[in-house]
Amino acid sequence: MSRKKETITLSIPSGTKEQLEEIARKLRIFWGKSPSVSGLLVAIAQHEFEVGEPFTLNSTQVVALQQAIGLLKDSGFIEQAQTISSLLLERGQLELPIRQQILQQVSQPTEAWRILADQFRQNQQPFHLLYANPQFGDLSFTVRYAEITFEEKRFYLNIWCDEDDTEDVANTDFPELIHNRCLRLDKIKGVVPINGQWRHEGLDNLKVYLHFYRGLIKAYEPKPNDISNEVIGEVRQVVRRVSNPFWLVREVLRYGDDCEIVSPENVRSLLQQKIRSLCQLYDIETMT
To answer: Domain WCX, which positions (predicted)?
Structure first.
């Protein structure tokens, strides 16, 4: 039994029928071999196609996609990052500075260095790296070991390099770590392979003792670099290999008084200095 159909009469300006047929043709809505205006109207009524204002991205969606682009680029998915960048340019409600920034990213050639760096790491091939340091300008490093880690909101390239006296060595309190560097992936300008030996020992590191108290005794989540993790009375003691105290201090500050750096003294002192600076900033008197 055939479905009952209704007939409507439309009064439309000259040329509109041809325009509707062209839309139906693009959407592949046909009656036989001809584009079907009736079929187009039915598809719109059944919400098979979007009508009204063009699809756009609001400011929150733009920010989220920008973050996704950064993560994709850091992870080596350059083509996918370019695809999302094009979507932002086409559909995003972008302020002029952001539009110019994305246009510049899209127009740049594929970041071959990112793929090369992965190949060098996998092949244990030493390489020369050029890095754009915002404070000191371009710096070069001879890389003997490299690994990529995720810290807080982005990926970083951690390297062991020959250089131990470049301008970016900001903290000399850790001579054991003076060959380590933590580099933002988007600041690397190029890599070139060199002859030499790969460092199989990895990054230099310190053995740091941490104590966790109260709720964190049970709630603490083990980290990949933890050497040992045990509950001793009212304390959870964690021993961890640390290649960059900067990230450790930021982590411990989030725990508040539920975590303490016990040793070594130079790492403990780094946190003490940070706390003193915060107290001065907020006019809190401290004992020296």
So the answer is: 238-277
